[in-house]
């Protein structure tokens, strides 16, 4: 009888033992000192038959900042830190304001919270639904603030030890899909990234 009860207890409580929650996800994503790799972005607009494709490289220092270096179709470098979102003009960092650039910067700032493991920051604006385990997880963000409900229907993020894919679904029926490849952690930074994110 004792073995039976122990067995039943293990069956009943094993989902809680094996559960993977947002706190564990945040802790895992905050472990690396830096994360670097390539990104490909497809922007699906209702007015276009084909997606707009961009690509480049990124460098993330969790809790410090993100360097987003678009290389195609043209060169554009954005930096996201606690002091704001800046654009490189070839000589210095200047405020990245105005037009679609600010919309892009807003998206970058939003998923910076997740790339950097700041699920607490995301929970202020979204209801989080996490599924899977540390080796393969998916996080769905359902907007709960009035502002986020105006912009997004949902955001889906998936990965393993790092974020591998982000999909932003907008209320107007448009969609952005970002995939990350060649991701490396704790590798030396080049001089530009080091200075940009210091």
TrEMBL record:
Pfam family, one: LolA_3
Signal peptide: 1-19
Record bears the keyword Signal: yes
Keyword entries, A-Z: Lipoprotein, Signal
Gene3D superfamilies: Lipoprotein localisation LolA/LolB/LppX
Entry-linked SUPFAM superfamilies: Prokaryotic lipoproteins and lipoprotein localization factors (SSF89392)
Name of the protein in question: Outer membrane lipoprotein carrier protein LolA
Organism: Uruburuella suis
Lineage: Bacteria, Pseudomonadati, Pseudomonadota, Betaproteobacteria, Neisseriales
